[in-house]
Amino acid sequence: MDHLVSVVIPAHNSERYIVPALDSILSQQHRPIEILVVDDGSTDSTSQIVRRYGPEVRLIEQDQRGHPTARNAGIRAATGAFLGFLDHDDLWSPDKLELQIAAFERNPTLDLVFGHIQNFFTPEMTEEERNRLAVPLHPLPGLLQGAMLARRASFDRVGLFSEKRGTGDFLDWYGRALQAQINIEMLPETVVHRRIHANNYQRMHKHERRQYLHAVKELLDRRRGIPG
After folding, report:
1. Which range in 41-50, 131-140, 197-206 is most confidently predicted, on average pLDDT?
2. pTM of the model
3. Which CATH number characterizes residue 56's domain?
4. Total domain count, the chain
5. Which range of residues forms the domain containing residue 176?
6. What would the 3-class secondary structure string for the chain be?
């Protein structure tokens, strides 16, 4: 069994959090790992920080085109038999890949393995800012890119992420995966720690939530057999 895991990180102006994100991958108990950071038109020091890691981390640079396009660029460049994803401001648990690869070994018919996520407030947030947010801090089933490990061949059966919208691209992809009758397991362990901070993408892009609703509608339509 080829165990090389390719990890794709889309990054835009990520200088504040990219180091702990990368370090959480490099501290994985599992090896081998291929890390690909796709710098999506950053105007800060993101690319310089990533270059300091040397050959352990591959940097791909592109003009700003959005997170789905950046993820797809990383996927096209990836060479591993498995695909993992991490947002630039989140963290993997140290045993994430070890747990998920073990699940694939137990059940060779699996296509995707997810785990739980746990939100945490970034330390620089004030108590007042934290109190304004209704954020669950206990582990939750993680139907997110960051909590998923995909067999590359299975991912390719579903196809790349939709680049039509900046929000809801994973929901769209997951809907196509269900339609393709992908075999999925959800692990009980927490595999991702999701950082809550003042500039979280979903909160900075409230105007794009309509796209998320469109993605939900398309998912429901697919499950009902209504053509897109």
Report:
1. 41-50
2. 0.86
3. 3.90.550.10
4. 1
5. 5-224
6. CCCCEEEEEEECCCCCCHHHHHHHHHCCCCCCEEEEEEEECCCCCHHHHHHCCHHHEEEEEECCCCHHHHHHHHHHHCCCCEEEECCCCCEECCCHHHHHHHHHHHCCCCCEEEEEEEEEECCCCCHHHHHCCCCCCCCEECCCHHHEEEEHHHHHHHCCCCCCCCCCHHHHHHHHHHHCCCCEEEEEEEEEEEEECCCCHHHHCHHHHHHHHHHHHHHHHHHHCCCC
